[in-house]
Design brief:
- With 182 residues, the chain is of the alpha/beta class.
- The chain has a single domain, classed as Alpha-Beta Barrel (Aconitase, domain 4).
- 25% of the residues lie in helices and 17% in strands.
- The protein is built from 6 helices and 7 strands; from the N terminus they run E-H-H-E-H-E-H-E-E-E-E-H-H.
- A 7-stranded mixed sheet has the order 4-3-2-1-5-6-7.
- A hairpin with a 4-residue loop joins strand 5 and strand 6.
- Helix 2 packs across helix 3 and helix 4 packs across helix 5.
- The longest helix is centred in the middle third of the chain and has 10 residues.
- It is globular.
- The two termini are 23 Å apart.
């Protein structure tokens, strides 16, 4: 996997909870079934309040044009559903940038290998708008806004980066010989 993630940003605020990321009514979809995984992506962030007039995934589409989500504090709070990062990944999200993450959401990003949880101190979600191009350099721990050239530091993902790159905790364990490959 490349250490550079570049794409359009979808900007949200603080306290985006798992019900906003993927409402409970869609939790019956089974991510290991390819058609249902794809369908989960089409419902990503469908629970956002009406103030978000731009949908994350356009009506009738299965994928989002926004490969990076930029949030504020406490992204992914709420219930501990793995469907939250899975739905984002299924929609084409590669990374979520936020000031802080709910710990369970952060761990589910790692366990599923769906999206990189990139933590920054700068309140980028207050400075940019949906559609702005962002570049994340995972190796050098930097986030850059393409139009302005503004950069900010990102916290080091450390050893969990390899788990995400492997596709999640089980793939990492299989690839590293911790459990038998099947």
């Amino acid at each position: 996997m490349s250490n550079i993630i570049k794409g359009k940003a979808f900007v949200v605020g603080d306290n985006i909870d798992t019900d906003q990321i993927i409402p409970a009514q869609y939790l019956s979809l089974v991510p290991t079934i390819p058609e249902e995984y794809e369908k989960l992506g089409s419902y990503a962030l469908i629970g956002l309040p009406d103030e978000y007039t731009t949908p994350y995934v356009a009506d009738g589409e299965m994928k989002s044009e926004y490969s990076i989500i930029v949030g504020g504090k406490n992204f992914g709070c709420g219930s501990s559903r793995e469907h939250a990062p899975i739905s984002l990944g299924a929609a084409g999200c590669k990374a979520v940038i936020a000031n802080s993450f709910a710990r369970i959401f952060f761990r589910n990003c790692i366990a599923t290998g769906e999206v990189y949880p990139v933590e920054i101190e700068a309140e980028l979600n207050q400075e940019i708008k949906t559609g702005d191009e962002i570049e994340i350099d995972l190796e050098n721990k930097r986030v850059k806004v393409i139009a302005s050239g503004k950069t900010c530091d990102a916290k080091d993902l450390g050893a969990v980066k390899a788990v995400i790159e492997a596709g999640g905790i089980f793939d990492y364990a299989r690839n590293s010989g911790m459990i038998d490959k099947k």
